[in-house]
Design a protein that fits this description.
The chain is built from no helices and eleven strands. The strands form two sheets. Strands 2, 4, 5, 6, 9, 10 and 11 form a seven-stranded mixed beta sheet that branches. Strands 1-3-8-7 form a four-stranded antiparallel beta sheet, with no helix packed on it.
C-alpha cells in the first residue's frame, strides 16, 4: 500500500499564504496523477489542483492564479503553495493519487487531511 501524509495546514488571515505538503511512502505510487482535494462539512470533496505524470498541472477555477502545485520527486513529496487566501478556501485539504486527475471517485489513495482556516 501507499501512505500519504499531509502537513503544513494551519490558520491564516485573508490574503495570507500557506504551504501544504504530502509525503508518499510505502510502495511506489506508480504512474498516477497526484492532486489536492478539499472538503468542508456538509459538502462534497472537491478537486483543487493536480499534477499529472507528464508534469501537466490542472487547477480548479476558484484557485487559478493563487495556488501552485509542485512535486519534489527526490523527497516523494507533493506541495501546494496557496497565496492570496480567502475565507472560502477554509477546508480540510486532502492529498490523493489516482489514474485520473481531480476525479474524486477514482482516486486510489488518500491522506488523512490537514485543516486550513482563513479568517
Amino acid at each position: 500500500d501507499v501512505q500519504l501524509v499531509e502537513s503544513g495546514g494551519g490558520s491564516v488571515q485573508t490574503g495570507g499564504s500557506l504551504r501544504v505538503s504530502c509525503e508518499a511512502s510505502g510502495n511506489t505510487v506508480g504512474p498516477m496523477c497526484m492532486g489536492w482535494f478539499r472538503q468542508v462539512p456538509g459538502k462534497e470533496r472537491e478537486g483543487v489542483a493536480a499534477i499529472d505524470t507528464d508534469g501537466t498541472t490542472t487547477y480548479a477555477d476558484s484557485v487559478k492564479g493563487r495556488f501552485t502545485i509542485s512535486t519534489d520527486k527526490s523527497k516523494n513529496t507533493l506541495n501546494l503553495q496557496m497565496n492570496g487566501l480567502k475565507p472560502e478556501d477554509t477546508a480540510k485539504y486532502y492529498c490523493a493519487a489516482g489514474p485520473t486527475c481531480l476525479v474524486r471517485q477514482v482516486q486510489r489513495f488518500w491522506g488523512q487531511g490537514t485543516q486550513v482556516t482563513v479568517s
